[in-house]
Write a structure and sequence with these properties.
Helix content is 59%, strand content 6%. By secondary structure, it is mostly helical.
Length: 174
């Protein structure tokens, strides 16, 4: 099954992302609280992090399947060369237009998921990306400090709030 193949690859990335998240948030704790250990952390990635990888694997498989079905649904009178060209274009578009965004979403969801499920952060706040195009997240940022796991105004508990979201969830220190 296509989704299982994608999940195999993405699941291998989860422990790497967890280590990176742990390092990022330890550095953040050092810079803000003056103590890299100010945030208690779990050693192993959480089940939620693997669930995020599964959701993105399913989404990627669904998108690829949809693109293939659209190519096959076109006029059956197309010759083999034209059909092969359309398949190639569908894969290229998927790679350039979609996979990059999904990869960013995976990293974002794994960072947020790690903070929410592998740390002892009691409150968090949303930091909106400085890049243009993330204006939907402004309300989340304006919400300020909220209890870990509560929903922000957009209904998200952490980034990504939309495809391509580059925002960051950060813990608050007393």
């Amino acid at each position: 099954h296509l989704s299982s193949r994608y999940l195999e690859v993405l699941s291998g990335f989860v422990p790497i992302a967890a280590d990176s998240a742990r390092g990022l948030y330890r550095s953040y704790a050092e810079a803000i609280a003056g103590d890299a250990n100010a945030l208690g952390v779990a050693v192993e990635p959480s089940a939620e992090m693997f669930a995020n990888a599964r959701e993105l694997a399913d989404e990627l498989a669904s998108e690829l399947t949809g693109r293939i079905e659209r190519v096959l649904a076109r006029d059956a009178s197309d010759d083999e060369s034209s059909l092969a060209s359309e398949f190639g274009a569908a894969f290229r578009e998927l790679k350039t237009d979609y996979v990059e965004l999904l990869t960013k979403d995976l990293v974002s969801s794994l960072l947020s998921g790690w903070l929410l499920s592998c740390s002892d952060a009691k409150t968090v706040h949303w930091v909106r990306s400085p890049r243009p195009g993330c204006s939907d997240c402004e309300d989340n940022e304006l919400a300020g400090q909220i209890a870990t796991g509560e929903e922000f105004p957009t209904g998200a508990i952490g980034p990504p709030a939309h495809i391509g979201c580059e925002c960051l969830l950060v813990p608050d220190f007393a």
